[in-house]
Design a protein that fits this description.
By secondary structure, the chain is an alpha+beta fold. The protein is 51% helix and 16% strand. It is built from 26 helices and 23 strands. Strands 14, 15, 16, 17, 18, 19, 20 and 21 form an eight-stranded mixed beta sheet that branches. Strands 3-4-9-6-8-7 form a six-stranded mixed beta barrel. A four-stranded antiparallel beta sheet has the order 13-22-12-23. A hairpin with a 2-residue loop joins strand 7 and strand 8. The protein is elongated, with a radius of gyration of 34 Å. The two termini are 43 Å apart. About 2% of the residues have low confidence.
Length: 823
């Protein structure tokens, strides 16, 4: 009852000071709201359990290959079959891959995102269909009738939720497939949103050691640890070469040199990727904003408590103990903290919608971000902590009021007043120091973004290049040469569209995420010991690709369609590949390389500029470009790449009819070929920098709020000091002091606070910004230019914030000042 009565009295007291209460709640709402919003993202992305049954037992199955310089290597059919058949630690396991497939016979042809899975993948995740059944071993075996499963959104969009869809036929890649099931609405597969699920159908008779291009998922048996799982897989890896044949021309020594090792890890790690480091930095950032907000409100509370000294002294004189006074002060601050938390929660809910809207494309689990019970508990805890933090100093300082000084009109001019000034000054110094840390962090990210934009990615004027992907399935056009000619014909038709300057095709364009990597043998550098050569990136291109991308041919020539049709043993390499082996790009022309020991040598006919294929922050990989048609490449038969990305350079990308003209041009060659992954090269480049740009925006907002709160704090304390020294100012002016001298007196107060805050802030920034080193590119965490610029900018703002109240104080009429003091 006593606490309830105290709370009612405190609430009435706060309502009698609406300006103080409003400013305090608003300041706290900004800090708590920002912290809650970012925590919601951190929890939804990093901490929330995966939406599967017993997610802690789900693991991703990867490998290490230090001999190739790769920290992570995917699974292959040979490793998957070995682990599944002879392993002791997995309840079950699955292999999967993502891709795209054309669907026809349902209106206009469309290209859909699909997921290829083995029969164990969905059971491992314990996903049950809402209609029909899952794949079994029969579906996943070559030569059996083709089947397909639908995801819930595709079922609703294409079949309007018709429950009789099971048993119907769907034409995928020109092949009729029986629909056997529909997945539940809640189904999410890691970071992918496929529309169709297809069986992977591994042909055991064709499996060999290699082809590490699939991803694995498994469920640990109860009680099995990840360490035990890795130990069991390490036991099985030597067995792989006994169970399956090596690729033609490769030796056991070559694979021994790879030093293949197990890397079983929590499946959540596969989902989260590298998003964690950015989100933790952002959470720490808004935590600093919250501390600044608390320091600001603490200053307000100190000022308010000073004004209540007589009231507190009377209460003490009437028998109220220090504990009771401190409790009431803390209850007041906690009540304000809870009010700020409620307002902050409303701000966080609105901010989350904005955060999700502007979040980078690759940020995982966006659909799982929200204000759920854990977030509400976090907000409550933060609100209570904030209330205690900013209420603690006033409670300690004024729980034992000095009765004589308090009853003498607040004891103005006493040493106690100077102590209060120092306390408030210390809070402002902490605000400046924390604001400086955030400003430095924000400036470093801005500089990182600038450096990233200045890197040559391997293309020019990306806003003029439209990219799209077209696949020619072998069920539609079985002949390999005719498949390549179809792509050639489409490129020619696209080139005839008005406004199109050039067209190129490639198995992948820079940064689009499609890659292929294999060893390259160089004739001039034979490996007498039979060891494995370095892995290089492979791309298959048609005529016009380099011209369209704007990648300069440094030496020799580019590949042509004739190279493909005539099966000429030629290729083109990037500049870094040429320099690594022959120092000069021109020296590479005429040299020979091959992809396997028993394949024919192929002549390097050209050298082109490097491509930042993995993003601008990652060194450009060495790339070998092959013609679209190849013989004796891995296999003796003629091979080609049936799925190609088209790059179309034009100044008509913003034309509303341009995409329709492209579609008509493609359909004039073959009506069953849909377009997929339509986006500009500029959008692809932006996606590669999306996390950095997101971090820049978030840090800039946090730094701006911190700067504003810091400026308000220093303005308030200089104004308060000036108000407390009104009589002194009047005497100084009456005795002949110039108003400029009076202004400088108070500006010096601000500069002293600035100097202390900057000194502490620079030391803190030098230590804390090292934690965000992994987010930086091309700039050091202790870059002196950034620190100097931020310090100068902050100093200028603080000087202005100090000068304004100082000028106002200097303009006081001395007679009025002395008269008001006398009263």
């Amino acid at each position: 009852m006593r606490v309830t009565r105290s709370l009612r009295l405190i609430a009435r007291r706060l309502l009698r000071t609406p300006f103080f209460s409003f400013v305090s709640v608003l300041t706290l709402a900004v800090g708590i709201g920002a912290t809650t919003a970012i925590f919601s993202v951190v929890y939804g992305v990093l901490l929330k359990p995966l939406p599967f049954n017993e997610p802690d037992r789900l693991v991703g199955v990867w490998h290490t290959a230090p001999g190739l310089g790769f920290p992570n290597v995917n699974q292959s059919p040979s490793t998957y079959l070995t682990y599944r058949e002879e392993g002791r630690v997995f309840e079950d396991s699955g292999l999967w891959d993502n891709g795209a497939a054309a669907v026809t016979g349902q209106g206009e042809p469309e290209q859909l995102d699909v997921l290829y899975v083995t029969d164990g993948t969905l059971p491992v995740l314990r996903v049950q269909p809402v209609l029909g059944r899952r794949f079994d071993a029969h579906d996943d075996s070559p030569g059996t009738p083709e089947t397909v499963m639908l995801t819930y959104p595709y079922w609703q969009r294409k079949f309007a939720g018709d429950r009789s869809v099971v048993g119907r036929r769907l034409i995928v890649e020109n092949t009729p497939r029986e629909i056997i099931g529909v997945l539940p609405q809640s189904f999410r597969f890691l970071n992918y949103n496929p529309q169709l699920i297809l069986p992977l159908r591994i042909n055991r008779a064709e499996v060999f050691v290699g082809n590490f291009s699939f991803q694995g998922v498994a469920r640990l048996k109860p009680g099995v640890t990840i360490e035990q799982a890795n130990a069991d897989l390490a036991r099985l890896i030597p067995r792989i070469m006994d169970k399956f044949p090596l690729p033609a021309g490769f030796s056991r020594k070559m694979f021994a040199d790879i030093r293949l090792g197990p890397n079983v890890r929590p499946l959540a790690q596969d989902v989260i990727g590298d998003a964690g480091r950015m989100l933790w930095v952002l959470l720490g950032t808004v935590g600093i904003v919250l501390l600044i907000a608390c320091a600001n409100v603490a200053n307000l509370f100190l000022v308010r408590a000073e004004g209540r000294q007589q009231e507190l002294a009377i209460r003490a004189a009437m028998g109220a103990g220090a504990g009771r006074i401190a409790r009431d002060l803390l209850l007041e601050s906690v009540l304000l903290g809870l009010a700020g938390g409620i307002a902050g929660l409303a701000l966080a809910a609105a901010g989350l919608r904005l955060l999700v809207a502007v979040a980078p494309e690759g940020l995982p689990r966006l659909n799982e971000i929200g204000v759920d019970p854990i977030v509400l508990l976090f907000t409550l805890a933060v609100s209570l902590l904030a209330g205690v933090l900013f209420g603690l100093l006033p409670a300690i300082r004024f729980a034992r009021p000095r009765l004589t000084a308090a009853l003498k009109d607040g004891g103005r001019g006493s040493s106690d007043g100077r102590e209060r000034h120092r306390l408030r000054g210390a809070l402002v110094v902490s605000e400046i120091a924390l604001a400086l840390v955030l400003l430095v962090a924000s400036a470093l990210m801005v500089r990182t973004f600038q450096v990233m934009r200045s890197v040559n990615p391997g293309f020019v004027d990306p806003e003029e290049v439209l990219t799209l992907r077209i696949s020619v399935p072998d069920t539609l056009i079985p002949d390999t040469t005719q498949s390549a000619r179809t792509h050639h014909a489409i490129a020619e038709r696209l080139r005839q569209i008005p406004g199109v300057r050039s067209v190129g095709v490639s198995s992948s364009v820079t940064m689009d995420g499609h890659d292929s990597n294999d060893p390259v043998f160089v004739e001039d550098f034979p490996r007498a010991d039979g060891s494995m050569p370095p892995i290089r990136r492979f791309k298959w291109i048609g005529e016009g690709y380099f011209e369209t991308m704007g990648n300069r041919v440094i030496a020799g020539r580019a590949l042509t369609w004739s190279d493909a049709y005539d099966l000429r043993p030629v290729c083109v390499v990037t500049e870094n590949f040429a320099r690594e082996h022959w120092k000069q790009p021109a020296a590479a022309v005429g040299r020979r390389i091959r992809n396997a020991p028993n394949n024919p040598w192929r002549e390097i006919v050209g050298v082109v500029g490097d491509e930042r294929d993995n993003g601008v922050t990652v060194p450009a990989p060495a790339i070998v470009y092959w013609p679209l048609l190849l013989k004796d490449f891995w296999v003796p038969e003629l091979t080609t790449r049936r799925a190609l990305t088209y790059a179309i350079r034009s100044d008509r990308l913003n034309s509303p009819t341009f995409l329709e003209e492209i579609q008509r041009a493609v359909w004039s060659v073959n009506r069953n070929l849909p377009l997929a992954s339509v986006q500009t090269l500029e959008e692809i480049a932006s996606e590669s920098m999306a996390q950095t740009s997101f971090a820049v925006v978030m840090l800039a907002i946090a730094a701006g709020v911190a700067l504003l709160l810091g400026v308000v704090g220093i303005y308030a304390i200089v104004a308060y000091i000036a108000a407390q020294r009104t009589r002194e100012i009047g005497i100084r002016v009456a005795l002949g002091a110039q108003r400029g001298d009076v202004s400088r007196l108070f500006v010096r107060e601000g500069l002293a606070l600035l100097a202390a805050g900057v000194a502490i802030g620079l030391a803190a920034a030098a230590g804390l910004t090292r934690l965000m080193g992994s987010l930086l590119f091309g700039v050091s965490a202790t870059d002196p230019l950034t620190y100097a610029a931020v310090t100068a900018g902050l100093g200028a703002v603080v000087i202005v914030a100090s000068y304004l109240p100082a000028r106002r104080a200097a303009s006081i009429d001395p007679l009025l000042a002395l008269k008001s003091e006398a009263c």
